[in-house]
Design a protein that fits this description.
By secondary structure, the protein is mainly α. The protein is built from seven helices and no strands.
């Protein structure tokens, strides 16, 4: 479900991304190159997460690198490295994220356990990662981050 208001300039793009059913755990290229070319609206975190949902890891990475003083940007940073399959860097950014408030919405699984699950390629890891990213999108919209 798209939590962006219909009047938000990025709402239609978010709806397209959220309708996906085939997001890989570790994508090799953007899902739809050029889909997110006009992204002047929204916070850097919102824009980075939309790029991440489009599997554009490079674009997402550039945005979060510029905001390393923000725990939500650091959270997205860990997700970028997780989707790259760069497990050591993922764990580093888990540490840099600290006790992010969104973790409370993920249940009893810790960030490190989710990284381990993805690294092992456990069944359902891609779907859980997708749910985490879309849940974080809802949280960013709800919290105005």
């Amino acid at each position: 479900m798209n939590s962006l208001p219909q009047t938000h300039p990025l709402s239609a793009l978010a709806a397209t991304l959220l309708a996906r059913t085939d997001a890989p755990l570790c994508p090799k290229a953007p899902w739809q190159p050029g889909l997110l070319t006009d992204m002047s609206a929204g916070s850097p975190n919102l824009r980075a997460l939309l790029h991440l949902l489009n599997d554009d890891l490079d674009a997402a990475h550039k945005l979060v690198q510029a905001h390393e003083d923000d725990s939500t940007a650091n959270y997205i940073h860990q997700l970028v490295h997780r989707r790259e399959g760069d497990w050591g860097n993922t764990r580093y950014w888990v540490g840099m994220t600290g006790a992010h408030p969104f973790y409370a919405e993920l249940g009893s699984t810790t960030a490190r356990e989710r990284v381990d699950s993805c690294q092992r390629g456990e069944p359902g890891a891609a779907a859980l990662a997708w749910d985490e990213m879309t849940g974080l999108l809802d949280w960013i919209v709800r919290e105005g981050r």
